[in-house]
Design brief:
CATH architecture: Orthogonal Bundle
Number of helices: 10
CATH topology: Hypothetical protein af1432
Helix content: 55-70%
CATH superfamily: Hypothetical protein af1432
Number of strands: 0
Order of helices and strands: HHHHHHHHHH
Shape: globular
Largest sheet: none
Structural class: mainly alpha
Amino acid sequence: MLATTERGGALREGIWAHGDRLATVAVALAQRLKLSAGFVELLRFAAPLHDIGKAAVPAEVLLKRAPLTAEEIALVRTHVHEGARMLAGSGARLCTAREVALTHHERWDGTGYPCGLRGEEIPLVGRIVAVADVFDALVSERPYKPAWPIDAARAEIVRGSGSQFDPKVVEAFLDLPGCRGLGRRAASEPARWLRD
């Protein structure tokens, strides 16, 4: 029981740290896209909550080192609806957070989930968080994979432009200070390379 509790605590810490790092990248993207200060502030609040629905997914599934079964993948995918349910409410901040939770796994080409939205049908907050989410997931160690070097993660984001990601958001990503002339860098603090 104690081991499960410790693993669950580490998982919660990891999810919150991921949310904070992701928010830093998402805010930088919104600023690079020259979006309004109001939009940026809503995104700053909403982005860290994108995976809040994972609280409803068993830790043993989220921390599994082996490939997930089809049933486990379906269970993990419920986090978008769970997150939207948890964030239901009124006010611009909660509405934006709900929209982020529900749409950050949609894909530009329409093959994402949960709704199969395509292109600009996907709210801009979801398109921005999608890039920031995948980038941070790639450069961070996970139970099932080591951290990727930032240059490899950058190349993966570029590969997804026009299929997984909005090309304009990818263009903004490539224009972030840490992506221009990118070489091999430590991935432990994406916020630091944004300032480099």
